[in-house]
């Protein structure tokens, strides 16, 4: 399952940090963050609950970039 989320991030480097953190999160098959469109596209592993996984993604992103936001 793939979903797209609106994000708020200040710079392209921060967006790259968010992408890397999200890709390491259990339950995420793939993640691409586009700084220009302020979107995060997440592909979830089979059988995962997107809401539960995104809560973990949000925590992981806040650890690497504390002023970022993901709108679920």
UniProtKB/TrEMBL annotation:
GO molecular function: metal ion binding
Residue ranges of every copy of the HMA domain listed in the record: 1-65
CDD domains: HMA
Xref: InterPro entries: HMA_dom, HMA_dom_sf
Protein name: Heavy-metal-associated domain-containing protein
Species for this entry: Candidatus Acutalibacter pullistercoris
């Amino acid at each position: 399952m793939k979903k797209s989320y609106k994000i708020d991030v200040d710079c392209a480097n921060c967006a790259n940090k968010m992408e890397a953190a999200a890709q390491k999160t259990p339950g995420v098959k793939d993640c691409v963050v586009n700084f220009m469109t302020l979107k995060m596209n997440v592909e979830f592993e089979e059988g995962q609950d997107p809401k539960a996984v995104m809560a973990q993604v949000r925590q992981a992103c806040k650890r690497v970039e504390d002023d970022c936001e993901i709108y679920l």
